[in-house]
Fold each of these.
Amino acid sequence: MTKKDLQKKPTNPQEKGYTAEQITVLEGLEPVRKRPGMYIGNTASEGFHHLLKEVVDNSIDEAMAGHAKKIDITIHKDNSASVVDDGRGIPVDIHKQTKKSALETVLTVLHAGGKFGGYASGYKVSGGLHGVGAAVVNALSEWVRAEVRRDGKIYTQEYKRGKPTGKVKLVGKVPPKDAWQRGTKISYKPDTEIFTVMEFDISYILDHYRQQAYLTRGVHLIIKDERTRFSYQYYFEGGLVSYIQHINRNKVVKTQPMYVSKTMENVMVETAVQYTDEFSETVMTFANNIHTPEGGSHLTGFRAALTRSLNNYGIKNGYIKDSDKITGEDMREGLTAIVSVKLANPQFEGQTKAKLGNAEVRGIVEDVVGGGLEFWLEEHPADAGKIMEKVLLAAKARLAARAARDAVIRKGVLDGLALPGKLADCSESDPALSELYIVEGDSAGGSAKQGRDRRFQAILPLRGKILNVERARLDKMLGNEQIKNLVIAMGAGIGEQFNIDNLRYQRIIIMTDADVDGAHIRTLLLTFFYRHFPDVINRGFLYIAQPPLFRVQHGKSAEYAFSEKQRDSIIEKYLKETKDKKTAKQEIRTVGIENQESESAVNIRGIGVQRYKGLGEMNPQQLWETTMDPANRVMLRVMVPDAEKASKIFEMLMGDEVAPRKNFIQTHAKSVKNLDI
């Protein structure tokens, strides 16, 4: 293209007016405020708490580098937060490139810090690897105040929505009696212009930083909540061993914990291993204290080392014969393990850092864990024997499960891939457009079949409660008719033959009654998916339908309510039309809803309120309008952001141990309203 061509006026009408003037250039931290979701995920609770995580991560990095021992986190009454550490303190001298202080550079320039091998080169390993943490917090806060104690002096600088209100100030000297003091204090308040949630969730904060304290052995974490005046402290000298004991505290353990820690080729590898009497495995992996839920090279190396070490020990000591067909899956049954690596330049797959990609880490972890595990097995023959017994039992159960699974699949083949007789399938063949409703009971199933859109909605009624799979092996599961029908209907297989790409529906919707039995069935189904089809949850394919609890009718008008609050609001609206709102509120309190929950219908001044206790009480048209019509329905997507916490809940609610479940019921009994028995 010549210069003359470039000077020609555009001939396409859509090109007119599109010149260099329409190109927006965002400077400094403007891109962060313009598109906060790109940096912190969202502007709701997750993103709101992500700011605190970014600030604390910098202090954790100081602790991992051996420069900090104590971190104080304070949640203030105005929902601002402060984080103080006793690390080296952010440098305040002038940065050569930016011509600003290093403190201001770190807080106002993206990808600036001591974690890139450039200026400062302050960290061998770190968690804040994108280098945007401090600057992003500054950009998305109403105000930030930084205080640095270095070389016996105290420096401060303040910012407003990412911009400094002045230069770094020397405000004084550290008192002689506190001359040893050093470190950084960052105080900030999330911006109300950015976030839709402006309140810290202390339970989330406690869970997250308990985990960080386990992973950073010897660090003292103090969390203060000024809103409730509660203070919490975490300090775990045992590190990963303490962590694995915490995870298994409600399980029957078969061995004592095995711990390995070694640095090889500048990669620090730590792992703790313990076996329980569970049927599933729990393996948590971390890279530079960042949870990697999808695993990666460190997980691959760990599994290879475990399989090789146990196999060698079993053959050497006569547990495993040549005829035995032992798999890695057999060796991981009942396993609880934590694998933590710390390295200088981790390569994560994806912005969410869900998977570690460094290929060299696999071999390092395999060597470190393999050597440590082989030594431990020789030194603890009693524990090693228990592990081998469990491995052999798992292998026998796997073969029995395979026979049961093959029988299910073989039956499908002989029947021409026949689907369960109860299943009313849809005509759509594209899984991305297809939905499967798992419905409680034949009555509700009948209404759902009549009310559905046959083109893309399939219905599978369940008769009664399915098997509790928390303590059941695969062969027993597939002997249960309800579970067998569900597995065949989904079409993706189960166990080692599961393939998510063969799933026949990419929206699987649990639809149960809004009562105790319905909640129990829902919990049983969630346990089934969480333990045996985690990919269905991870891919966002599992949902919970939200049928309405009430139908409020006034004359020819009718509305549905999904909560008591919404129901009362509708009643008040209808009664307001009678210009008697005061009387309306009084009648809501005294006439009836709360006092007549046992009744299926209540009448208040000509307004009929029907309470749905079961899906079967709705006719097909009502079920379609309220619960199945994509234009009107409300559904909850099942997500598991914290797998460890979810696993504990399922173990407590569905496992064999009665004491934890009894304690949970006693603790939360008073918070249950309108219990249907």
Note: The longest helix spans residues 381-414.
Amino acid sequence: MGPVLMTPPSKLSITRRIRALGQVTERCECDASTLVGTVLRLWCKTAFPALPQPSLPYSKVLAAEPQIAAFVALLGQLSYLEATYWLSSAYAVLADEGYRKSLAMFFTPASLTEGLLEDLAAQGVDFGSQSFMDPACGGAAFLAPIALRMRTALVAQGFTALKVLKHIERHLSGCDLDKTLCELSKHFLCMALHAEIQKTNYVPSFNVHTANSLTTLAACLGTADVVVCNPPYRKMTAEELEPLRDTYSDVIEAQPNLYCLFIALCVRLLRIGGHTALVTPTSFLSGQYFGRLRKFLMRNTDVEHIGMVSDRQGVFIDVEQETALTVLRRRAEEDHTQVRANVSVVSGAGQYTSVGECTLSNSGAVWPIPRSVDDVTLLKAAALSRFRLSDYGYRVRIGAYVWNRDKRPKFDSLQDARKAKAHTAMPLMWSRDIVPGRIVRLEDTSAYDGEHRFVDLGDKGHMSVVTSPCVVMQRVTSNDQPRRLVAAAVSPGVFDTYGGFIGENHVVIIEAVSDKPALPPTKLAKLLSAHAVDRYFRCISGAINVSAFELNQLALPDPRALREALADGRSMEEAVHLAFGLVSEG
């Protein structure tokens, strides 16, 4: 009888086990730091016996709990890098929620770090000679695999075990705001080099320290060969932004995301010719308030490669978003009008599949990035178009009504509004009223129980009231919807009957600002629903929210060519392809 093959535990099952450990720590009156310290000591006792005891707190009471022993055994079933990822993640999941969010503790899975390090190697990075830094090192998600690659390269060069340890000690560094994570990272590095430590009895003192990278690394600027980072991402408060304004003024715009400043820092840390590898949300590629960052990157770097992670689900625990793996090369500052970058789609397992090149503008405009091979041709054609929604005679606005905050009188039906003598009540449009391929009519009574249909604004001329012919869109879409742009025209009857409507804030309103727009709303809705237009929008937006800024940047075909094709009896899909030049007239 052959050996029994064990199925590796799933991400979901491990996450559930970690959450269950939270109950154990509460019962034993221990915090997250003591949990990981206890697990780490038990794990190292059997698997890494040559190492000194971890400096993190340890609890005998916690160590005696069966669930702790089971979690240690689980780590032993995983690869070293996967195990370190899950132990770091256990600390993040079980830490105080407010603290976790303030530090934005979300760690990179081993499969993605390995894929990104392979990409660095393909760009010419030498793990056997160059220096590496991570200014937001977290649980050594990058530092540990880099140490393993450095060791392999050094051994191949004939380095002794002691020389390997001392070289890595000098050429690898990191910092983080959280002291526990820094101690965890240092011990993970020792675990990665356990064989050398066991052979030499030399324990390196790794340069991993607790610090705010954004304010304390001035002496390191322009010195690093390679900077790797999964920067923290969350909106910054005005208070924490104020002392950073002068230093990061060239990338700060409105209320920036924390990772915007970290990207700038990573570039500044590099020597000319150095590389940075980043794991970030995709919002910097197209977001309205990342325009200065895009200009900064075009002036100071060559965008060597952009990897778009195809698996939105499960990349980071408790986070659903599209992720980019970006490799940049520092160069002397100069202005470039356009740059071409290689693009790949990356699987959740870290496998890269090339989809071609894309063109990046230096104007701060969005960077359309292909998500598939088929998108490359579309983007090339769309790049030649100068036409946007404004050229069609329309403008974009977002519904202003926030149902759970607005205190004005609301009514389930027109009859209720009349009974209350609400002479200025206006119909309210909800996102669910918008069905693609249909005309939005707004009945006198909501079709959904408990959902009000009318709101008394006190003034029918209120700025929130939409009175012009328009197309409406769902502002938020889900992963399982086939289209990102879910659009429909509003029936003229809505304006004839009620004089207009107000939109709930999950409704995007594209209203005519010209007496003779290039297309009437019914045809504009069909244009926005066309496959090529929807695909282009996906290439400029990885978020589930449909942003007014990104809609205004949406490349559209020449309206005159489009009308001519429609007049010839073409369908909207055919007319869009023809007007974009994606097919010949023959």
Note: The two ends are 67 Å apart (CA to CA).
